[in-house]
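Quick log. Single chain, no ligands specified.
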Amino acid sequence: MEPLKKCPNKIFHILLTGGVGSRLWPLSRVSRPKQYLDIFKGNSLFELTVMRNASCTEELVIVGNSENQKVSAKSLKKLDITSYLDIIEATPRNTAPAIAFAAFAAGREDILLVTPADHIIGNGEAYHIAIENAVQLAQENALVTFGMHPTKPETGYGYIEHDGDKVLSFREKPDKETAIQFLKTGNFLWNSGMFCFKAGVFLEELQKYAPEVYAKSFEAWKSAENNCLEMNASLEIPSISVDYAVMEKSEKIKVVKAEFDWSDMGSFEAVYNYLLENGHPVDENGNMVIGSNKFTAFVGLQNSILVCSEDANLVLSKEASQGVKSIYQNLEKNNSVLIN
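-> predicted structure:
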């Protein structure tokens, strides 16, 4: 990919590495979240995200907890990347504070391209065009979100109602009937969780719409040592997503309708589809095994998935993938070692 057209501001890639990926249990655990699973042609989603954005940005900033930092460092060494900034959170406070820390580390006129570490994206000209459009809008002091063209009535994503690049509303994850109506209306996009804006503009809007989040995040940042946040100060920060804190309230929001292939890899259905497209074997009824090379036979089942790990197995129908989170939550509630 060619570098972006010259931008008068430095462009930072803010890579958010938080989250466990509970819908991908038992592969994804606290000790190895889904973004570090190297099941994508030998690479992890984290590694693919770093490589995809290297030519679009000039600085890399990674925000995550201390456990993820160790795995991130190993992946970056694999990619031969040595120049980056680590911001290490003491405790998860969701995406609004995480982005605020990165904004404090940048110059106010610098542009932040904020991406999760766990998305799979078609890396081609369409991605390049979307980033350029977002940077242009960010230079005009907009807070930009990326909206994906919905291909089905997905209930696992939030939606953006839009008119051109103007955002009319953000909608929470809908039920199936509401999602069907969104698609019929034709002016709804999937909310990707990717953003682009000037650091200073974001901080101004955060201070305006979530003043306590701004103030407590700034206090925690000032008390940080070597970009490592301190626990007591961090616990004072309200835990809130950037959508709730800023994006659903600000009048500066714009949306870039992205035309590139995208998935947040948030379910085994998404993983199944990706692996199938890349030659992973299935039987004559569409059943797939992930994580084992043992001979496996499916009887009377269609489009089922067997997921194997060293200490747990999961059997599910592809269409029921969103239900895996409830299994994880029950294990978490019972303090099971199977989530570690």
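DSSP finds eleven helices and 14 strands in the chain.
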